Amino acid sequence: MQTQSESMANNTAKSGDLKKIFAPYRDDLKHYEQHFSEVMRSDIKLVDQVAKYIVKHKGKQFRPLLLMVSARAISEPTAATYTTAAVVELLHTATLVHDDVLDNSELRRGFKTIHKIWKNKIAILMGDYLLAKSLIAATETGSLRIMNTIATVAKRLIQGEIFEIQKTRNLDLNEKDYFRLIGDKTASLISACCELGALTVNATEAQCQAMKDFGENLGLAFQIKDDLLDYESSSGILGKPALADVQDKKVTLPLLYAFASADEKERKQISSMIKKGASKKDTHYILDFVKSQEGIEKARAKAYEIKDKAIESISILPESEARTSLENLAEFVLNRTK
Amino acid sequence: MQTQSESMANNTAKSGDLKKIFAPYRDDLKHYEQHFSEVMRSDIKLVDQVAKYIVKHKGKQFRPLLLMVSARAISEPTAATYTTAAVVELLHTATLVHDDVLDNSELRRGFKTIHKIWKNKIAILMGDYLLAKSLIAATETGSLRIMNTIATVAKRLIQGEIFEIQKTRNLDLNEKDYFRLIGDKTASLISACCELGALTVNATEAQCQAMKDFGENLGLAFQIKDDLLDYESSSGILGKPALADVQDKKVTLPLLYAFASADEKERKQISSMIKKGASKKDTHYILDFVKSQEGIEKARAKAYEIKDKAIESISILPESEARTSLENLAEFVLNRTK
Lengths: 338, 338
Prior knowledge:
Oligomer: homodimer
Number of strands of chain A: 2
CATH superfamily of chain A: Farnesyl Diphosphate Synthase
Number of domains of chain A: 1
């Protein structure tokens, strides 16, 4: 957890980098955004109202951009590329609308969440609606493989969330579970974006597989870094130990690696701290424990290893501006400080 | 609204009739149920647990049965018939799980609802999961048309619910809105079952259209009857005027038809009664008003007209046991007393 000013400064730096990486694809973004707005239109007033609010307060469009750059790393985008970019954003938005209900979040991107304005009923139904819309848009491509990829990634996203609740309730996550969890919750959609980009430009099977592998590893590296930030920012100059994840009873890779080299007694002691809800003193203790066992370094090394694998997998593609953008993206994902 | 003993007696009569209609398809049902249980399996413990609970407390399987009978009205069912029967039940179940959250219902088919046992988070996620599963199962058929039909019906079901909330909030429903609402909320899935049944046995385009029309009209007749029951049962021997729909601020066909032949002043008076929440005295008054304007008879006549249209549309199919079952089903839908 960071102080607000820290977080804002980092945010600027971060979106600056991302903006730079995605700058050459401004026209693609425009093209896609027009399509997305059209897809979101509805003749049912209430649906249209909520949809317009979502379009107005949209995010960085990371997923559609990733999809379009992935397509460009192979060939010129097609109509299906833009359609599919809208499909992944619809799916992503559906999950965010429901997530905000599940977590009872007040704000999303600095604006009131759907359920805070229109109540839970409408938010749940709008999430369902966006999920269905995403799949209808996917059928427009006329490709069963694209449809199946989208439906499967929707399933992975959702089962990832359920798996996380199950594991958080029981606090019995191991390394294998952790990778399955972040694979389903985060890497699945990132991987699908890359694979779908390739599929929409008639890539070869080897190219599709390369893009899929790149995306899966990019997503894993991204999530490990996210989990690392919880430990890294807690040890910063201004930072007080926060370990928000630990306080949410979430066990992530730095702690898992620390557990692996600790003795049974220590593991049990820390597990019970987390189970009963860690106090401020406990979180200090846990952070020191993770550091002493080199959990942060080990998790960081793993993230770099996975990032290298991501970059390696797209080395079979011809050199291009888009391939370089993907490589820069992989580096950015680990270098970010927020 | 009916007394409990009335309702139970009717229920026995009703399910007796439905059971009789569907009796010849017991083997199809078995075949489908086995497939459905397999589809519901998950290697994530919590998902599997909830899924098993759903399978254990399943309903009458009206939709999969309708789909299988529709297929048989044209030809022998195929593997795709059973797969698609599971697809529609998955979709239907997804909407029920979310509906129970939206309405905060305690019981479904006499058993505790998912969100009462596992809390809202899991219920919302399980609904999402079943929706995604439904679409993955649809891709198994390898038919883009089946996929698109399912995704579109999912959208219609959901937008129907949002439209209902919008119209209930504003209380400005007209006859056209009413038919759109019940078309989306009820007829869409019934129609899809009939059309999908035909699609899975390689029916001709004319046969698919006939089945689709049959289903749409069957669904409309079903819902009008449902709305009629609210008025019919309120005037029964034991019944006190209840008009549960009016109390929920829902305007249905009998009232709309009564409005159409009443003068402006009377319409406004009744609208304001409903808006502010009808008292017991108000519901008496509204029931008398609907009766005096022949709203119940007119809605009943409309339901019969639609039912006749349903039966007419499948007259192009060759005579068969299955076609007769569909005809009996259409009659049953209007003759039921609950």
